Amino acid sequence: MMNAFGVLSAVVRRDLLVALRRKSEVLTSLFFFVIVASLFPLGIGSEMDLLRKIAPGVLWVAALLAAMLSLNRLFANDYADGTLEQMALSPVPLGLLVTGKILAHWFVAGLPLVLIAPMLGLQYDLSPRALMVLVISLLLGTPLLSLIGAIGAALTLGVRGGGVLVSLLTLPLYIPALIFGAGAVEADISGLGAAGHLSLLAALLTLAVFFAPWATTAALKIALE
Amino acid sequence: MLTATDLACVRGDRRLFSGLGFALAPGAWIYLTGENGSGKTSLLRILVGLSPAEAGEIRWGGVPIARLGDEYRRAVTYLGHHNALKEELTARENLCTGAALAGVKLDAARADALLAEVGLAGREELPARFLSQGQKRRVSLARLLWSESPLWILDEPFVALDAAAVAWLASTLAAHLAGGGMAILTSHQEVLIPGSTMQTLRLAA
User: Fold this and answer.
1) ipTM of predicted complex
2) Chain B touched by A16 (CB under 8 Å)
3) Between the CA of residue B118 and those of A82, A207, B197, what are the distances in Å?
4) Which of A6, A134, B66, B197 lies in disulfide reach of B28, CB 3.0 to 4.6 Å?
């Protein structure tokens, strides 16, 4: 028997390997983020004050939508080819396997957004300090998006038109992450300090780490019945 | 020892079966037959614990399976209609990750040996999407070779297999039963497992 960590890393490795061989799906959400975030400066023009003001909100909304793009594939493929069934029947707790899948989803759909965000932030004339806060807020926020999104993806599994439904279901749940994430960057720009917002974001993440896999597991078991 | 008493299953507003019961002892197997839509797959999914039964109880070693949890899941290997293979992964990777998901460590050398046993030597590096239907089924069935579960529940395991693979599966089942294992399987073709105790369970449509 393998220990819990061994199983977790095996699930992450498997999902990353699958994603690596299906590159188009991975690149879609990244390109979406880059394009949406670049459209605003192009549309608005070079009014630096305005761009600086809207930057946190726009970048965060773009990240939110990009992370959501890949959500309906999180469990749908495993559901269709029968591997989800085998996961549910495995002696390993399903919650552990689900945690691995969420982690892999973050590596594929969340982490690239965090890494490219400072480059996009430059278009909005953000200061280096504000860029750093943006990266930290996304680093805390994107795992939260994957965790909450997993619940939505599991609830809409096997439902016809689940792709639209998952957006309607998860976007309202993303609101706290958006408020505190964008708020952190705004607070830093206006000189108030981002610590408060970031702590709240970290608290939300901690809460989600404990509850989201559990809720996702429960939803998956219902979907498999 | 698997016992089922008074099982019932309802799909939509149709009662597929009710009052169904059996006892399966080590070394014996159940041949589950019935027309299309008579509830064979539904029964198997209830037996492995994927779906709840409308009524009735399933016990493993005298204890209800719901109470056993992962202990029962360790005792059962289930192969459904789907092969549970990832198209992007190679045959070897599929076998290794499939085992890892069940908490079993399978290294590449052992996986290759198992693939050779199911007649896929030389195909280890081929992504599953390039395999034929029968070859995919063989990769899927290779899971039986590393499984240490006493109870095998197989839904149409012979589908897409050629004559050689059918004979291989029958002999694998015979060895499993001779070692005190149990099996429940559905099939639309005649199944012969030499030297075994067979019970036939027929579901009426």
Assistant:
1) 0.91
2) no
3) 21, 47, 25
4) B197
